[in-house]
Every structure is written in structure tokens, then in C-alpha cells.
Amino acid sequence: MKVVDGLLAAYGPPELPPPADPLGLILWEQVGYLADDERRGSAFEQLRERVGLTPEAILAASMDTLEEIARAGGSVAVSERAERMRVSAQAVVDEWGGDLSRALRQPPAEATRALKRFPMIGEPGADKILMLTRTHAVLALDSNGLRVLLRLGYGEEGKSYGPTYRLMREALAPECREDFDWLARTYGLLRLHGQRTCRRSAPRCGECILAEDCPSAGS
Predict the structure, then answer these.
(1) How confident is the model at residue 2 (pLDDT cuts 50, 70, 90)?
(2) Do residues 26 and 129 touch, judged by C-beta distance below 8 A?
């Protein structure tokens, strides 16, 4: 994808969520909500240091502690997010014997279904976990990356987010590589470009390195 080379030249290698097992990546999503990366990362590190990232550690922690950490990751739905962390940990113990990587070793469709059963994990989140754990070579896209690609003319917009996401995945398939480093870098660069430049409102087309090839530039 030519777009990836341009973004890499503009931004350099993107930052990605800290290395973690599948449950850790689920907790990364749950510990923060409507929070920027810095705040989410700070809350996640608190969870790692004060509680731990194993299902046993999460289940042994008090709700007060989990709520305090969840609050550090955003003020919305604090109690609900703390409870979701406990529910997720319990599910890993009950359904996967404490080792969620067993679920990911299934064929991709089954692994995705297993991950989507966890609170706050939809199809894009499941794809991200499969990609970052280097289990299945899929290109995950968050809402920022999806918006960037739509504006560049890739894929087409469906009736809702889910169909749009799947249509985009189909459109990108011929250009994707089965290279986990490339997939993760592409995910991070598209996300970063959508956050900084190709924003949902007031996009900065005049500063965009891709504007020359973008059919949406200036519109």
C-alpha cells in the first residue's frame, strides 16, 4: 500500500499498545474509555503494577481498587468497566482454563467469535488482538483508520459501522501482507493519521502528506 509508505515517512514508526497476552489486550480496552492514549496507558500501568494482568490477579483485587484504576482511565462508566474486567477474568478461568491463548489458536472465525464474547470487544477489537498477539495475520482498523481509507477511496460505506468495516477488509485484502510487523505498523499509522490530520471534523487537508492522491482533500 503506497499510503503506508507515505505515512511512515511523515510520522515514523507508530506507538502500539504495550506487549501483552490476549487478556491484557482486553483489559487495555476496558481500563480506559473516551481517554487519550496517554491516560489509557497510565491507567493500564497502574493495573499492571498494583493488581497484575492475570485472571487470578484481577479476581483477587477489590472492586474499590479496580474502580480507582478504571477512573484513572476515564470518568465514564467507572463501575461498569471495573466489573467488566472481573467478568472477563472469570470467563478466561471458566471457559479457557486461565489461558485465553487457547481460544486464539482456533481457526480465525472461531477465535474472533470467542473474543467478541468479552465486554467492549467487537470485530475490530478482536482483529486487533489477533494481530498484536501475532496469532492470525489480519489487518485491524480502528474508526480513525477506517475513516482515512474511506476518504482515500478504498472500500465503500455500508449502512452501519460493522458492514463498512467488513467491506473495507475485503477491499484491502489484495494489498495486505501476511507480515505481522507490517500489519501492526499499518494499523498504527492509519490510526495516528486519523487522529492528527484526517480528523472526523475539520480535517487538516492542507497539512496532509496524502492530499495529492486523496479524492476527498478539501471537500
Answers:
(1) confident
(2) yes
Q: How far apart are CA 161 and CA 72, in angstroms?
A: 29
DSSP string, 48-116: HHHT-SSHHHHHHS-HHHHHHHHHHT-STTHHHHHHHHHHHHHHHHHHHTT-THHHHTS-HHHHHHHHH
Domains in the chain: ranges and CATH? 2-14+140-213 (1.10.1670.10), 22-99 (1.10.340.30)
pLDDT at 193 > cutoff 90: yes
Per-residue confidence band for 49, with pLDDT thresholds at 50, 70 and 90: very high
**Residue 215 burial (C-beta neighbours within 10 Å; 0-12, 13-18, 19+):** exposed
Tell me how many degrees the CA angle 180-10-211 measures, rounded to the nearest 5.
Answer: 105
pTM: 0.93
Longest Cα–Cα distance of the chain, Å, equals 54
Contact 7, 190 (CB under 8 A): yes
Helix, strand or coil for residue 168? helix
Sign of CA dihedral 147, 42, 136, 1: positive
